[in-house]
Design goal:
The protein is built from 4 helices and 6 strands. The protein is of the alpha+beta class. Strand 5 and strand 6 form a beta hairpin. The protein starts with a strand and ends in a 9-residue tail after the last helix.
Length: 206
């Protein structure tokens, strides 16, 4: 057996098809305890009422009838705010100062949006890997996932984008198995899918 390292790089314009993702709650998914909510906030199995697309205001979900329309059910919503050089989650578990790194002309010494996104991507990919491997009976307790996020600019105008790079290490897993697991994880991970397909984004003025 050997350690297998798999790397994925996303750049603008990348597209990769993949199956629907069943949810990021690995433990709940593996034990069957997860009860998804649909876009109206109702538990799975309850009748959903069709309603209008949001008219405005943050935090309001688009409504749609559940069924064969291909829509996704809402499982969990994280909320955070940025103000006065800090970002904080609504439950207070995340509360950090933000400063631009020296490479971008800032003083550094604090975290930055690119670091936070890299950490989130690495964590989500790792959770998805655990879910995929668990379904196939493969032990990945020693796996590590490294993610990098690069801010990119084109020309002199304010034309910015990001690229991402993910490296997975699976000690003790056969290379062929590792490749299969990571390829499937890449297709299922919601962050990978958002980068590859483009996330649904709504912007409001309050």
């Amino acid at each position: 057996m050997s350690e297998e390292i798999r790397r994925f790089t996303h750049r603008p314009g990348d597209r990769a098809p993949g199956p629907d993702y069943s949810g990021p709650g690995v433990e709940a998914e593996l034990t069957g305890l997860m009860q998804p909510e649909d876009r109206t906030g109702e538990r799975a199995g309850e009748a959903a009422r069709p309603g209008p697309v949001r008219e405005g205001g943050p935090g309001r979900e688009r409504r749609g009838e559940r069924g064969g329309d291909g829509s996704y059910d809402g499982l969990y919503t994280a909320r955070a705010s940025s103000a006065l050089g800090k970002v904080a989650s609504d439950d207070g578990l995340l509360d950090v100062r933000i400063k631009a790194p020296p490479e971008l002309g800032g003083p550094g010494g604090e975290t930055n949006p690119e670091q936070l996104l890299a950490a989130a991507y690495a964590s989500c990919f790792h959770n998805s890997l655990t879910l995929v491997a668990g379904r196939q009976g493969t032990r990945t307790a020693d796996a590590t996932v490294d993610a990098s996020v690069t801010l990119r600019k084109r020309g002199a105008a304010d034309d910015y984008t990001i690229s991402t790079d993910v490296t997975v290490r699976l000690p003790g897993v056969e290379p062929e198995t590792a490749r299969r697991l990571v390829d499937e994880t890449h297709r299922m991970c919601p962050y990978s899918r958002a980068f590859a397909h483009g996330a649904e984004v709504h912007v409001h003025v309050a």
